[in-house]
Amino acid sequence: MKPAAQPGWRAAMISLALFGCLLLVWHLATAPKQSVEQARAAATFSADDEYAKLMGKSSSSPVKTSGFPGLAQMGETMRKELANPFYDNGPNDKGIGIQLGYSLARVGLGFAIAALVAIPLGFLLGMSPLMQRALNPFIQILKPISPLAWMPLALYTIKDSSISGIFVIFICSVWPMLMNTAFGVASVRRDWLNVAKTLEVTPLRKAFLVILPAAAPTILTGMRISMGIAWLVIVAAEMLVGGTGIGYFVWNEWNNLSLTSVIFAILVIGVTGMVLDLFFARLQKLVTYTE
């Protein structure tokens, strides 16, 4: 085994050990504990069941389920949800795959619109100190506003919950991309710009062949941060507006008192966020260069 690969294997083994410990703690914490009173109640219910059978009647003993779900319940819920993730039985009964697809579509569209606005504007701010000083007050006022604070205004003006969700994703995604693009463009080495100026390179050609490759790692960092924030916000936004999406799925299952489905959806949200982050991390690694 290569020495460079050993830390990766060690990290994987530690991760598996921590995951096993987490499952063990979960199992021990949710293992059924029967008290004396519960044992007496169970005996009473059993006697009632036998009496009902002798009388030719069905049992009326209540079946009580309470507490945090165990691993067996979670396994059954995961098997059931993943067996048919794309079923559609109406507005309030859709599979986890369909709900996840709605959320990814909203995030992707809002993120793409934010990139089309933030990256060119970031180039302008990075290349023009005058425009940066002129627009900086507006950016500093709008940037700290919570994306969800825009939701009532979006619903009032747009009057469409799905488009309002896309607008909220746009708002939360635009600022990290804008700031990182402006910083990356402004940080391009002066030597490279002076060489381009000496060679009389046109501004458009200089932007694509000199500035963009140099600022690409910083731009991808901003896009990675924006995607993480967008995936956080879409869940909360869908809980507010309802209809479709993974956030609505969580809220709907909570209203149905299905805690196992809520936990399963939380795991899906986490895994999806990890995959999105790994995707942008891979892109960032591809455009990063060493001098």
Provide a short characterization of the protein structure:
The chain is an all-alpha fold. 77% of the residues lie in helices and 0% in strands.
Can you describe this structure?
By secondary structure, the chain is mostly helical. The protein has helices spanning 6-30, 36-54, 71-83, 96-127, 129-142, 151-158, 161-186, 190-198, 203-241, 246-255, 259-287. Helix 4 (96-127) runs parallel beside helix 7 and helix 10 packs antiparallel against helix 11 (259-287). The chain is globular and about 80 Å long. Residues 57-66 have low confidence and may be disordered.
Summary tags:
291 residues, mainly alpha, 11 helices
Element layout with pairings:
Elements: H1 6-30, H2 36-54, H3 71-83, H4 96-127, H5 129-142, H6 151-158, H7 161-186, H8 190-198, H9 203-241, H10 246-255, H11 259-287
Helix pairs in contact: 3-11, 4-5, 4-7, 4-9, 4-10, 6-7, 7-9, 9-10, 9-11, 10-11
What percentage of the residues does DSSP assign to strands (E)? Answer: under 5%
**What structural category do the secondary elements indicate?**
mainly alpha
Helix content: over 70%
Overall, the morphology is globular
* Beta strand count: 0
Count the helices. How many?
11
